[in-house]
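Shipment paperwork, digital attachment
Item: protein structure file
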Amino acid sequence: MTEVEVVVVDDPVRAAADYLATTVARGGEIALSGGSSPRPVYELAAKLEPDWSDVRVWLGDERCVPPDDERANVRLVRESLSSTSHPPELQPVDTSISPADAAAAYDVELGGVTLDLALQGLGPDGHTASLFPGAPSLGETRRRAVAAPAGLEPWVERVTMTVPFLGAARQVLYLVLGEGKAEAARRAFVESPSPSTPASLVRSAAGRTIAILDPPAARLLGR
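Attachment content:
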């Protein structure tokens, strides 16, 4: 498994936005994550690089709620990128059907796609995307997207990209903020890979894996 390049900075939002904007300028296939941490990254990246017309944006995971629901990752992405002069092509998950059918449809859409960048978060329990500790989905080796149970609040079922599909990305970029993520960061980026910490399993197989953290999140990394 490839090494993780750990970057500890006082302004991780700016660092991640710079990285994302640079990737957008080159064009390609990008997977974005949901949650509260990446919103300012997307907003800043949209200002740094307003032309996203050469980019196709996928969702690393999605909650099975209507697209206008405040819990929907697609809504977060659309709102965060609203200032772009040329928006990206956005590939949402069809949450109007069952999670299993939605995952199967997304799996088909992802056929032939190699991500240029997968932007990942890290939960306090060590999850990333909707890959939760000990979940059966961690052992998936063939499919690109699968349905996931409601493993975290909000308690709704989800669709998530799989470990091997995310690992096929040319670049995997983690954004980790806050002291509450410090223990998970240690397990994800220092300890040996384990299904108890799904983020420890997602690494770019042939490219770069970078983790951008603020000092509180990095306090247990021994740096």
